[in-house]
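Justification of computing resources. Each target in the renewal requires a structure prediction run like the one illustrated here; the chain below, 130 residues long, is used simply to show the kind of job we budget for.
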Amino acid sequence: MPIFLNTLKTTLAAGVLAITASTGQADLTATEAAQVEKLRGTPVLSSDGGLVGLIQGASISGDKASLFLKPGSGDILRRNGHDIIIRTNTTELTLQGTQIILNANAQRVRTKANVQKEEDDQVVVQLPRI
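Resulting structure tokens:
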């Protein structure tokens, strides 16, 4: 009986982790959008867990979102220390607790992001729909 209980506990734990690791493809609700706009210094991650940057602010209007990020040394979109503005659709964002998840894997964010312009202090990046 204890082996069965241990197996059941392990299976349930794996299921819970799988559910929390998966991301939804739904738009942010108005409440979530307001919460995202207030976040500062929390991580923005790709859906596979790669760090994109730390959020310094956001502007969400309708189905468009702009995230203002401070890059770090281990971030996917690091650009010579310049701040990064990510423009994407709200369908590509998920809020889990205080973390923002981009619905793309780290490799896709790194290779498919379209740099629209680079200025002295910031880089504007357009993320494609997936």
